[in-house]
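Much of what follows relies on a compact textual record of a protein's fold. An example makes this concrete, so a full record is given next.
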Amino acid sequence: MNQNRWRQPKKQQISGRVAVSGVHPVRIVLRRGRATEVWVRKGANEHRLREILAIAHSTGISVIDVAPQDFDDAVSSDTNHQSVIAFAEPREMEPENALPVLLDGLESPLILVLDGVTDPHNFGACLRSAEAFGVSCVIVPKDHSAPLNQVARKTSSGASELIPVVKVKNLARCLRRLQQDGFWIIGAAGESSANMCKAFNQGPLALVMGSEGSGLRRLTRDVCDALVSIPMLGCIESLNVSVAAGVLLYDLQNTRGALPSLSTYQESV
């Protein structure tokens, strides 16, 4: 380690900021100019962190070598931090009145709605799938929703810094307002006999995923224009909500023709 970087971190240095951990999430916040300081766990492999260190150096962000105990105290015990943390100004969830601004000018926006997903790991994984498949924003209810905390940020692999998350007071009312604006609301429900192709629509669309245990709430379900399910071959009756969201988002975007075409498979001789 470069000894010129070494100094003992002070508690006030991280006050009021959020810790974004992991190589890929840290790279994203650095590139987006949101990081104020980077911590590297003393003894880490600098070759793995070479790009991060280069970006921080080029943008004038301080990189500090931190003693292992102090470093570990700054992250959740179940976080795979990969020996690097970026501290950034906390990104708050967007207020409900920001939704029209976020959707303004988008021809056929796709929204992911999470109705009661309370586990931060599932929340982060849903954000990751949403960003990967071109979702314009994610909507969550004010109550009964996971926080955008360190665990969710890490699980999202940087997606939490890229995709807006809008918190609404009344989810059913928000969905009805989207319908008035031309959105088609599709809810995921295991008992449905329809798949995504049959519920296909080219215009503005919102995909609603229910909670990990009980699924869609009744009021949310009643607002939906259609309910869809994922056909499965095995004995397991349902998927984890984040896995199901990824499958349905892929199926939806593939049906809409939004995904890039893949080259034709050719068997090597």
Remarks:
- The chain has two domains: 3-88, 96-255.
- Residues 29 and 161 are 7 Å apart (CA to CA).
- DSSP finds nine helices and ten strands in the chain.
- The first strand starts at residue 18 and ends at 21.
